[in-house]
Amino acid sequence: MDTNTNNLDNINRSYKIDDFKPGYMVRESLLDIIPQLTLWPEQSIETNFFHNSIVCGDCQELLKSIPENSVDLIFTSPPYADQRKSTYGGISADKYVKWFLPKSHEFLRVLKPTGSFVLNIKERVIDGERHTYVIELILALREQGWFWTEEYMWHKKNSHPGKWPNRFRDNWERLLHFTKAKHFQMNQDEVKVPIGDWAEGRLKNLSETDKTRDNSKVGSGFGKKISNWVGKDLVYPSNVVHMATECYNQQHSAVFPLALPEWFIKLFTKEGDIVLDPFLGSGTTCVAAKRLNRTYFGIDVNSEYCALASKRLLNDKPNGRK
Fold this sequence. Notes:
Elements: H1 8-12, E1 15-16, E2 25-28, E3 35-37, E4 53-56, H2 59-62, E5 71-76, H3 85-88, H4 96-110, E6 111-121, E7 125-126, E8 129-130, H5 133-144, E9 147-156, E10 172-179, E11 193-194, H6 198-202, E12 214-215, E13 223-224, E14 234-235, E15 240-243, H7 259-268, E16 274-277, H8 284-291, E17 295-300, H9 303-315
Parallel strand pairs: 4-17, 5-6, 5-16, 9-15, 16-17
Antiparallel strand pairs: 1-2, 2-3, 6-10, 7-8, 9-10, 11-14, 12-13
């Protein structure tokens, strides 16, 4: 979509979709009937505009018009260093931090004090070694004012096999959790998991040690009291999430599974909260937010991805079936 069409004429040619709240704007493509999103003029973005909306444009600029402390969760996967050159131009690993920080400055401003920012990212191999741009970014974000609260691992259960002379295949990606404060919204009970078959035999005959806190023998400070698990069907998960990769309709080069944003949306938000994905891609985060009755806001600089995401949302039914 030509960025020069970003003017009020577009608004006059737009129409609203009944399934969405006011502010979700699409327009008929001149080439087909697939909906594409209007490039909304920045000066026209109001407080409620971003409720259940997708906007095509640069998140760094568009977010300047969004009120501060207005978003509950930012969940996103930006283009990795030197990746997606055909769609996003590619960002050099050496320049990645400089490219990202102006954007994360806006993330920090619009996120609520109780909110969370979850960043899906992964180092890449350059000239035979892992580049440090992710580590450098973590340190730079801390300098910017973020708390690096936690790091989650996404274990890709169905990653493709391969062979390299000095390493094995990548089977996981980082999910870096940042917050504005040390106390934030976290709904741990929403992501509990089954306790597992091990408990049936292990909890049947408890020893005296099992009935007291058994501290770690290596002095780590960790301990456990086995009897605490008696009668429990669900327990808290670890910081490793095991999910297969997906590719929505083979139209996007890097799609994470719908269950991934769903997990974090349930963990860090409640119904009605606002979820932002500033690098929306094919729209997975917004679909997950919609299914969980959260308010979504997606931004992407690529108009084809905005059209793909809007089509997914239009076709997605309340019960999750397409």
